[in-house]
Amino acid sequence: MKQSAYMLLVDDEEELRATLQETLELANYHVMTASNATRAKDAVDNGKFDVAILDIRLPDGSGLDLLKSFKESDPDMGIILITGYSEVDSAVQAIELGADDFLKKPFEPDELLIRIQELLKKRVLKQENKKLKQEIRSSKSQHGLVGQCDAIQRIRDTALLLGDSDSTVLITGESGTGKEVLANMLHQSGSRADKPFVSINCGAIPEELLESELFGHVKGAFTGAVRARAGRFEVANGGTIFLDEIGDMSPKLQVKLLRVLQERTFEPVGSHQPIHIDVRVVAATHRDLEEEIEQGRFRQDLYYRLNVIPLTLPALREREDDVIILTEKFLENFNKLKNSNITGISDAAKTILLRYNWPGNVRELQNLVERVTTLKRSGKIDIEDLPSRMLDAAERTVQGFSIDVKQHDTIDFKGIVDEFESHLITSALDRFGWNKNQAAKFLSMNRTTLVEKIKKKGLVPSS
Fold first, then answer.
1. Which CATH class is domain 150-314?
2. Candidates 3.40.50.720, 1.10.1670.10, 3.60.20.10, 3.40.50.2300; correct CATH number of 6-128?
3. Is the CB of residue 92 less than 8 Å from the CB of residue 102?
4. What CATH code is assigned to 318-390?
C-alpha cells in the first residue's frame, strides 16, 4: 500500500541517517533529512511533516529542544526520539514533553517502520475523533436555534465563529426568545463543550441567597450553613456559566461579579481564601441595560465587561417565516414525548398563528404545542384548539356566526351575507389600523377588490 506521509529525519550520524532514509523511502514515505538542529528548524519552518524522527544528541543542540519547538508550531506532528542507553532518563522526559515514542540505539530499521505505522494509525484515529467532535458540536449548534429568518441565521453563524472564543457574550432580547438556548449553543459549538454548562437565573433567587449560589460558602458562614458548598462558578470551572436576567442583580453582587470578570477569582461567603477559575461567562437580560445605567440601577463598568460581544435575539413577531417551522419542530418533539399523533396544522390555524402577536415569544408557542399534544392526542391543530386570546374579532365572528333557521319564517340571504361581509372586512381593517394592503392579504383578497367594497359599503373605522 502506497504511503503518503512526510518524514523529517534528524541525526548527525551520516551512515545511520542514510540507512534509515533508504528504509523509509522503500516504504514509500517522503523523507527529508537534517544533520543538526539548525537545519531541522529550517525544514519545519518551510514545510509540514507528519512525523519527525529526532536524535536526542545533536552537534548544535538537543532533540528535546526541537521536540518542544516542533510541538508548539504543530501540535499534531508525531515525534519519535532516538536515544542511547545512557539517555533513558532524557527519553522519559521527552515523553512527558509530548513525544509519541522513542527507540534505544542500536535498533533495526524495520523496528522504526513498525513504530511509525503505529503512530500514523493513532494519528488518523485522533484526527477522526477530532473531526467527529467538531461535527457533533456543529450539529448541536446548528439545531440549537430553529428558524430560517435572516436574523436567526446570522446568530447561528456568529455562534459558530465564537465557539472557541473565551470572550464574554451579552445576549439581549425579550423574555421567551431563547436566550438560554443560544447560550447553550455557544457552549456546545466550542472547545468547552465537554465541560460543564451551568445556568442560573439571577432574577429568580433572593439577593441574600444568590451570593452563596454563585460563589459558594464555607461551613458556618451563616445560619444554616452546616456544611461547605461549592458555588455555580466553581462548578462551571473549565466550562461555561450562563447568568440569566443579569439586569436583576443587586448593586452589591454586581461589584463582586465585576471582580470575577476582571481577575477570574472569587471568595466563597465566609472565606478569605481566593479561588481561581477558568470559566467562560455568557450573560443575558430582557432589560435595556443602558437605561438601567442611567437610572443608577446597573454599573456602567460591569456593563462594559459583559458587553464584549453583544447578540440580540429577535421577538417571534419579527420572525413570521419561522412560526410554522417552530410549530412543526415542537410538534415533532412533543409527539415523541407525549406519545401523541398530531399530524399537522390546518390552514385556518396557520393563518391565526401567523397573525398572532406572540407576547410570550417562542416559549409561548412551545407551551401551546405542548398543551395541544397533551390534550388532543391526534388529528390536526385547528382553530378550536387555540386559546381565545389568539382569535381576533374577525376569527371569533367566523366561529360564532350561525343562524337558527327554525326561528325564522324567511331569511334575507343577501342581507345577512352582506352584513357578515361588512363586519368581517371592518374587523380586519381595524386590526391592521386600516392598512388596506395588510387587510387584503389577511382576507386573501385583491387590494383593488377590497377598496371597491369599502367604497360601495361606505365602511368606516369602528369607534
1. alpha beta
2. 3.40.50.2300
3. no
4. 1.10.8.60
Note if the bond before 106 is cis, omega within 30 degrees: yes
Evaluate if pTM is beyond 0.70. Answer: no
Q: Which residues contact 458 (CB under 8 A, 6 or more apart)?
A: none
**DSSP letter (8 states) at residue 243:** E
Query: CA 224, CA 269: separation in Å to the nearest integer?
Result: 13
Give the three cell numbers for residue 113: 517502520
- Amino acid (one-letter) located at 50: D
Q: Tell me the pairing of strands 265-266 and 275-276.
A: antiparallel
Residue 263 phi, psi (nearest 5): -110, -10
Distance CA 233, CA 285 (A): 19
pLDDT at 2: 47
Which is it for strands 265-266 and 30-34: parallel, antiparallel or unpaired? unpaired
Residue 271 has pLDDT above 80, yes or no: yes
Q: Do residues 66 and 40 lie in contact, with contact meaning Cβ atoms separated by under 8 Å?
A: yes
Residue among 284, 312, 307 nearest 168 (CA): 307
373 and 340 Cβ atoms separated by less than 8 Å: yes
How many helices and strands, by DSSP H and E, does the chain display?
Answer: 19, 16
Q: Which phi and psi (to 5°) does residue 187 adopt?
A: -65, -45
Total Cβ atoms within 10 A of residue 45: 9
Query: Cell numbers 532524557 label which residue?
Result: 90
Rounded to whole angstroms, how far apart are CA atoms 169 and 308? 6
HSE value, Cβ hemisphere, 13 Å, CA-based, for 303: 18
pLDDT tens-digit readout, 28-86: 899 999 999 999 999 998 888 999 999 888 899 888 889 888 988 888 889 998 887 55
Q: For residues 427 and 393, is the Cβ–Cβ distance under 8 A?
A: yes
Cα separation, 101 vs 55, in Å, equals 12
405-457 maps to CATH 1.10.1740.10: no
Among 46, 45, 82, smallest CA distance to 62 is for 82
Q: Which amino acid is at 217?
A: H
Buried b (16+ CB within 10 A) or exposed e, 405-444: eeeeeeeeeeeeeeeeebbbbbbbbebeeeebebbbebbe
Per-residue model confidence (pLDDT) at position 365: 93
C-alpha to C-alpha distance for 390 and 382, rounded to whole angstroms:
12
Question: Are 241 and 281 spatial neighbours (Cβ–Cβ below 8 Å)?
Answer: yes
Instruction: Indicate the burial class of 23 (C-beta count within 10 angstroms; 0-12, 13-18, 19 or more).
Output: middle
The residue ranges of DSSP E strands in 313-461, in sequence order, are 341-345, 378-381
- Residue 131 identity (one-letter amino acid): K
> Phi and psi for 307 in degrees, rounded to 5?
-90, 40
